[in-house]
Amino acid sequence: MDFLRQWAVSLIISAAAVTVVIILTPRGATDKTVKAVASIFVISVIFTPFARMKIEFPSLEAAADYGGEINCDLNEAVLDVCRNAVENALTRRAAALNVTLDEICINADINTDGCIIIQNISVTVNGVGCDLQMLSEELSEAAGAQVTVLTNE
């Protein structure tokens, strides 16, 4: 409450000082300039309490405290999306070749620069009547990375 009282007193004193300055200045070319400067001074006194105000954002502070966990969760979510996209591409290409993929294993990570690195992709198929070399080439083209094809035999 004391701060509000001090602010009101400084506003009243500033308004009185501005009034005296405006009254004492001669009329003429400097009149508009003096009034503009006086107005800016009074406006600055009015907004002084807002300049001293401390605005806190608790949700941002909480995010900063748990930044490591959030970053890790975000990386995992991005990797999951990447893995799902590669799995879908492999499954579609295998279906076009009339091959059923039993298991898809994608080993991927995000480096410090934020780039997704696919380290290896392996798929397991039922080895009945498959040309593994041709299937590996087709799946590698679909995935955009080398795919190792293994059989269940």
Would you summarize the structure shown here?
The chain has helices spanning 2-24, 31-46, 48-52, 58-65, 67-96, 132-143, and strands spanning 101-110, 116-125, 147-151. The chain has 153 residues and is of the alpha+beta class.
What can you tell me about this protein's structure?
With 153 residues, the protein is α+β, with helices and mostly antiparallel strands. The chain has 2 domains: 54 residues; 85 residues, GMP Synthetase, Chain A, domain 3 (2-Layer Sandwich). Helix content is 61%, strand content 16%. The chain has 6 helices and 3 strands; from the N terminus they run H-H-H-H-H-E-E-H-E. It has a 3-stranded mixed sheet. The mean pLDDT is 80.
Task: Walk me through the topology.
Blueprint: H1 2-24, H2 31-46, H3 48-52, H4 58-65, H5 67-96, E1 101-110, E2 116-125, H6 132-143, E3 147-151
Parallel strand pairs: 2-3
Antiparallel strand pairs: 1-2
Helix pairs in contact: 1-2, 5-6
Beta-strand fraction estimate:
15-25%
Distance between the termini: 84 Å
Structural class, judged by helices and strands?
alpha+beta
Mean pLDDT: 80
CATH hierarchy class name of the largest domain: Alpha Beta
* Total helical elements: 6
Which stretches of 5+ consecutive residues score pLDDT under 50? Answer: none
Largest sheet: 3 strands, mixed
Q: Find the CATH topology of the largest domain.
A: GMP Synthetase, Chain A, domain 3
User: Which percent bin holds the helix content?
Assistant: 55-70%
